[in-house]
Amino acid sequence: MDKLKGYTKSSQDFFAGLIHGRRDSASRNPIEILKRLQREAFSDLMKLRDRQDKIERTLSFYKPSKAGPFKESATHVRGQVDLLGALLMMDNISQQNLDVISRAGISTGVDSRLIFETNIRQKDTLVAEFSTSQKGKEHHSDGLGSPLSLSKLCYMAKVSDWLSVMAIPIGAQCKDVGVTSSSFHQQGKGLTDVSSGGPPLLNLHNGSAIGIMVRKSNIVASLAQLVSGLGKQLGSNTWEKCSSTFGELACQFPGGMKVSLLGLYQVPLPSSEVKLGSLTFPILSSKPRQVSETAYEVFPLLETRKQFSTGSVALMVESEVDDTTKIGGWVEMNKLNPRSVHWGISMADVSEDSFGWGMSLNGMIGDLASDDLFQVESYLKFNVAHKFCLKPGLVYVADGQTKLAGIMLRSSWSF
User: Fold this and answer.
1) Phi, psi angles (nearest 5°) of residue 309
2) 309 within 8 A of 288, measured Cβ to Cβ
3) In angstroms, how far is the first alpha carbon of the chain from the final one?
4) With the C-alpha atoms ordered 124, 201, 362, 86, is the resulting torsion angle positive or negative?
5) By CB count within 10 A, which of 158, 171, 363, 372 is most buried?
6) Residue-wise pLDDT tens digits, 44-58
7) What pLDDT is recorded for position 153?
8) Phi (first) and psi of residue 86, to 5 degrees
9) Taken in order 130, 136, 137, 142, is the CA torsion positive or negative?
10) Phi/psi of residue 178, nearest 5 degrees
11) What phi, psi does 175 have (nearest 5°)?
């Protein structure tokens, strides 16, 4: 009997070990392990998906329904600091000599600019320029500081590949709405304002402007309407409001030659007490009074601008001598005095090499209000460091019987 019980127990142990062995082998099977891990991972992914849906629904509640024009827009900041000093040789310090220095464009001092440029809707651009300047100003203190103010605000919209529209409510100049934009003079900037600015009509401060630009093949045209304060009233210190129309036609020829025809027509507003808004541009239909032959003898040139319309026409030619040297010339005539001619010729090395040079000849003949002006200057250019440039040079000015010469140094830093 004891043997039978022992045999039964050993049989049970045998079958129990056999069953547990199969279960252990099944649990150690790689396929079963992978299936179990897959089920656990799927469960975790579903939980994460539910949490992500809840977060997206919460964020969509705070998201605006329509994207603004400044969405994902980046603002680029550029700056420039320009310093000009001069050592002038003259007979004496008199008002006549100071007038000659002003006519020659010798504006010493520090000029700083900060430009904020924001791209809107990929094709449009908003530009705000802040500047501070001591050039051409009389200071009665030894301080070098001056306030930083908004000097220009411009919005440019590219409607298509051939049409652009721009609006400048503050600080508009003709060069801002023109085709040329003094590209040659910016790269080969001389020592004085006369040699750096091109025709005088490009640098007139016109307050507010709105214009269009059309491009077709190698021809570019621009047309703009401006409101400005040009000239002083007779016997007062207030500025006269003036409506101006500016146009430019430029043609690019093979070989790097560019010819531009510019025109500016100015009409004084009926009353000096009329004040227009920044973006108000009057179009006058009445015919302006013409200047008689004796007007030049009766009224000084600056006073006749108050009563009569005026205008200027200029021709600019730019050409590339080689890859690094450019030459340019311009001539400008005024409607009030057709015999008065402003002219300028410049030649400069515009490369980014460590050493360069430049020279210019400028003058004005036939002006009834002043003597003939002749000016020549030359300079050497040293690119000392990245975007830092030194330009030492010589300048000579002859204004009638008044003559002066000087040594000048211009330093500029861009960032």
Assistant:
1) -70, 155
2) yes
3) 108
4) negative
5) 171
6) 788 888 887 877 777
7) 92
8) -145, 145
9) positive
10) -95, 170
11) -70, -20
Residue 16 tokens, joined: 């129990």
CB 172 within 8 A of CB 203: no
State whether residue 74 is helix, strand or coil: coil
What string of DSSP letters covers 31-71? HHHHHHHHHHHHHHHHHHHHHHHHHHHHHHHHS-SS--TTT
Contact between 346 and 357 (Cβ < 8 Å) = no
The answer regarding whether domain 75-136+145-414 maps to CATH 2.40.160.10 reads yes
* Paired residues of 248 in beta bridges: 222, 262
Among the listed residues 274, 259, 286, the one whose alpha carbon sits nearest the alpha carbon of residue 229: 274
Q: Token pair for residue 110?
A: 């520090």
Contact in structure between 228 and 411 (CB atoms under 8 Å): no
Give the helix/strand (H/E) hosting 16. helix 2-27
- State the residue for tokens 């320029």: 129
What tokens does 54 get? 């809840």
Query: Rounded to whole angstroms, how far apart are CA atoms 10 and 156?
Result: 99
Residues in the chain with pLDDT values less than 70: 1-28, 59-73, 134-146, 180-188, 206, 229-240, 270-308
